[in-house]
Design brief:
Layout lengths: L3 E6 L4 H7 L11 H7 L19 E6 L7 E5 L5 E4 L3 E4 L5 H15 L6 E7 L4 E6 L5 E4 L4 E2 H7 L12 E7 L2 E7 L1 H5 L7 E2 L4 E4 L1 H14 L3 E6 L1
Parallel strand pairs: 7-13
Antiparallel strand pairs: 1-14, 2-3, 2-6, 4-5, 7-8, 9-12, 10-11, 10-13
GO molecular function: polysaccharide transmembrane transporter activity; porin activity
InterPro entries: Poly_export, Poly_export_N, SLBB_dom
Membrane topology: Multi-pass membrane protein
């Protein structure tokens, strides 16, 4: 079985990498088993991935028996914060609704309300968006609700063009704070001979070799610190 080695390019070597970025191609990214180790398919038996609040999301907050502290809709600002009565500014980006509810309850309970009960909901999700580009009928940015898959994302873009190369489907994703990529064979997925990889908010999907090549070069030149995954 092939193993994966992670090569991290430090900022010190970035000028050299940029000068050589034209030498890289999608061949540098993992395929097959290596790709699925990096970006697995959704396991139906696994717990549903929690939703993390992001900038520009709209949320609802309910404090039991406290109508002045309850809101049908609050928008998270571009910095990932909200202003809440009695408490002030709260950093909410990256927290689940349950985590935010517990944080608000803790703050209110310290000085203002005895044993507050707080519920937080998602009114509108902005963070759960994916970009689909390349050889699809309708490239663009699409919202996803909960978990999604590569086939579902391609369907949202109204399918492939006639010149699309199905074995050159690339997904970019931020993993542990760094951008990574992998290539999947859409033909095998459609035939049921390969799993359908899970798509997460923030993913970038590129269909077709020529589009992938250009986007990969852009990815290399744009990232100040990145990982390249290769098969050995």
């Amino acid at each position: 079985m092939n193993s994966i080695r992670r090569l991290t390019i430090a900022p010190l070597f970035l000028p050299l990498v940029l000068s050589l970025s034209g030498c890289f191609s999608p061949a540098d990214l993992p395929r097959g088993e290596a790709a699925y180790r990096l970006m697995p398919a959704q396991d139906p038996a696994s717990p549903r991935r929690p939703y993390y609040i992001g900038p520009e999301d709209k949320i609802s907050i309910r404090v039991f028996q406290e109508p002045d502290l309850s809101f049908d809709e609050l928008q998270v600002d571009s910095g990932g914060n909200i202003n809440f009565p009695l408490i002030g500014e709260l950093a909410v980006s990256g927290k689940t609704p349950n985590e935010l509810g517990a944080m608000i309850a803790s703050r209110l309970g310290q000085n203002f309300i005895r044993d507050p009960q707080v519920m937080v909901g998602i009114v509108q999700s902005v963070a759960q968006r994916v970009t689909v580009s390349g050889n699809v009928m309708k490239p663009g940015v699409y919202e996803i609700a909960g978990t999604s898959s590569l086939l579902e994302a391609v369907s949202r873009a109204e399918g492939l063009t006639r010149v699309a190369v199905k074995d050159q489907v690339l997904i970019f994703r931020t993993i542990d704070g760094q951008r990574s990529g992998a290539i999947f064979n859409l033909a095998l997925i459609e035939e049921g001979r390969a799993p359908d990889p899970q798509i997460l908010g923030g993913d970038q999907i590129v269909i077709g070799f020529s589009a992938v090549k250009g986007t990969y070069r852009d990815f290399l030149t744009a990232a100040p610190l990145f990982n390249i995954f290769r098969r050995y």
